[in-house]
Fold this sequence. Notes:
The protein has a two-stranded antiparallel ribbon. It has 2 domains: 37 residues, no CATH class; 72 residues, no CATH class. With 113 residues, the chain is α+β, with helices and mostly antiparallel strands. GO terms for molecular function: structural constituent of ribosome. Belongs to the eukaryotic ribosomal protein eL34 family. InterPro entries: Ribosomal_eL34, Ribosomal_eL34_C_sf, Ribosomal_eL34_CS.
Amino acid sequence: MAQRVTLRKRTPYNTTSNRRRIVKTPGGKLVYHHIKKLASAPKCGDCGIALPGIPALRPRQYATISKTKKTVRRAYGGSRCGDCVKSRILRAFLLEEAKIVKKVIKSQEKARK
């Protein structure tokens, strides 16, 4: 007959926070090991891909690691991926260029009149 295994925590329900695995100890006893939830990597706010260079941890664990491990040394580092930052910079540059071109055309029309 199989050996019985007793729960180690008070929650008897099969929830995601109460997942367990049966492990045999060196003494030959079977015990439950409670498994922590898997961490999801932080995502880019624009395109939604996982941010490279930032570890996937549970929310509370980010408080224990240093700031250099939570960010990337770049504008929007730790919030947006490099491709999205590149496209943002390019978009801002092109908008400024368009404003300048508009201004030049307006001044040329004034000069003609």
